[in-house]
Amino acid sequence: MDDFRSLIRPDDLRAVGLGCGTAALAWGRADRPAGPLRELGRVRVGPYYTNTREGLRLSRRILDRQRKDMRQIIMITDGKPSALTQPDGRIYKNAFGLDPFIVSETIAEVAACRKSGIMINTFMLARDYDLVSFVRRVADICKGKAYFTTPYTLGQYVLMDYMDKKTRTIH
User: Fold this and answer.
1) Residue 8: inside a domain
2) Does residue 81 belong to any structural domain of this protein?
3) What's the pTM value of the predicted model, to 2 decimals?
């Protein structure tokens, strides 16, 4: 039995905050949550901008270093990428509507995740048409799932499964 356990790597769980300055916030193993993972509920990110591309980029770099059969990003968001780290390190911000430049750069990172074999599953916390369309596009590119809910009704959501193109309500 001990030999068998040494062959299996436990799952890792890492959290990445999607504020302006994206950073890995916590980590732990599924079989032994400890350290910063216990502090995850106390983390503050924000308040106004979401650097989705940088969050996905950091997540992809973390996952690229792991030799796991299933690598996935679970993103909980309002669906609105509103900040972008530029090559010189400055952060471009636009909180008004969906900025085409930010969206195109974020979609390019979504495609890079797919190319790396990383699935993105998204919990969407808003109902705005453009934001829902953006999240559906992310799910379609990565063959992931989009769960549409609100912060108040996270337990009930609509699941868009782009693997079999079905929509169903889950309670």
Assistant:
1) no
2) yes
3) 0.77
